[in-house]
Amino acid sequence: MEFIGKIFALAIAAIFVQNFVLMRFLGLCPYIGVSKKLDSAVGMGMAVIFVMTMASTFTWLIQTYLLIPLKIEFLQTIAFILTIASLVQLVEMVIQKTAPALYKALGVFLPLITTNCAVLGVAILNINENLNFLGAILNGLFAGLGFTLVLVLMAGIRERLDKAEIPVSMKGMPIAMVMAGLMALAFLGFAGLKF
Amino acid sequence: MSLIKEFTKGFIKENPVFVMALGLCPTLAVTTSVENAIGMGLAATFVLVFSNIFISLIKNFIPPKIRIPCYIVIIASFVTIVDMVMHAYVPALHKNLGLFIPLIVVNCIILGRAEAFAGKNKLIPSIFDGFGMGFGFTLALIVIGGIREILGVGQFLGFNILPKCYIECPMLIAILAPGAFIVMGLLMGLMNLKKKK
Asked: Which one of B68, B108, B184 has the shortest CB-CB distance to A29?
């Protein structure tokens, strides 16, 4: 029972209290770039969840069984980013073969997941917070869920924002940023949530 | 002198943060104080300049299909160097910047300049481009950091700027997450306004 409680606490932390986009400022570029339409936001979110979970898995394994035994922890950045880049390449090839419609919908955003700071961020955070293997995988999964949640919320709001009357200089990016700020304010309300 | 133009274009006309909207993650995260902003800006400039140098030097030997992973390895190496140097010589700043030092490797500015400029131009223009973009980035960080630090704690670089009555009750939201987004949004709106005029 305590085990389920721990997983639940991890989920609440990763999705709400320390939301990766609004609180940790990770994953902002695709957040602003893809959140214009609801469908592409959902598609991107799914891809990011998958990549983040797999990235957490493989980077944890590499850290534990390759970097630490050989005492080359300083190569962490290089090793992790290469792992993530290869993973994204793999995911891209798999999606291209199995779901060509999704591949076309995601377009250029799929290779861009490589430079998504959230993916490298969660990989490094797993190590810094000394999570075990299961914790790392789950943290990646929940972080991806938190990212997708905020992305979908933002897309829904932006679709309506397009039709509102906004001063010309604030149209597009500026108002999206202010919107994100208001969402962050709302998520700040989770700050005292503890288990 | 076109070289000087490569240098100054990164300041305002093609400012990576305000105009091209690149490198947003570290911008919002580290601008809680001007000191952190300057630290991050200089670290990123170092990585940008040196990776531009190396990429421009070996651009003719990299097969086009695998150029992005090659750029990433070069950038990651310099990020590792910066990380270790900062950890050794400025440990307090290293702790403040935390996660975002290794995240310089996925900073879209550096990869973007490598792809758009250093991969296609000679060594000297690439150096100037690197310095220009780096300083433009640092400038943007200082502006945002300054606004947030003055509003959020009433200080600038640790010096009390605003009167005591403000420091006792500052606009705390400016240094918290929402403030970052809102300040950024308003600044971008301001830049748009300036561009239209």
From this structure: B108
Q: How much is the ipTM here?
A: 0.82
How many Å lie between the alpha carbon of A7 and the closest alpha carbon of chain B? Answer: 24
Which of B29, B76, B190 lies nearest to residue A77, judging by beta carbons?
A: B76
What is the separation of C-alpha A172 from the centre of its chain, rounded to a whole number of angstroms?
A: 22
Q: Give B82's contacts (C-beta < 8 A, 6+ positions apart).
A: B43, B46, B47, B101, B104
Distance, in Å, from the CA atom of B135 to the CA atom of A32, rounded to the nearest integer, reads: 24
Dump pLDDT digits (tens) for A115-147.
788 899 999 988 888 888 998 999 999 999 999
**Closest CB from A78, A121, A171 relative to B77:** A78
B176 contacts A81? CB cut-off 8 A: no
Smallest Cβ–Cβ distance between B181 and the set A167, A170, A181 belongs to A181
Residue A64's CB: how many other CB atoms inside 10 A? 14
Helix or strand run (H / E) with residue A122? helix A117-128
**pTM (2 d.p.):** 0.84
Residue B62 in contact with partner chain A when CB distance is under 8 A:
no
Residue of B106, B113, B194 to mutate for A, most A C-beta atoms under 10 A: B106
Judge: B99–A124 Cβ closer than 8 Å, yes or no. yes
Partner-chain contact B185 A177, CB within 8 Å = yes
Tell me the C-alpha distance between B104 and A160, whole Å.
Answer: 34
| Exposed / middle / buried, residue A192 (Cβ in 10 Å: 0-12, 13-18, 19+) | exposed
* Nearest residue on chain B to A83, alpha-carbon basis: B69
Percentage of residues of chain A with pLDDT beyond 90: 13
Contact B152, B175 (CB under 8 A): yes
- Give the integer Cα–Cα distance in Å for A24 and A118: 9
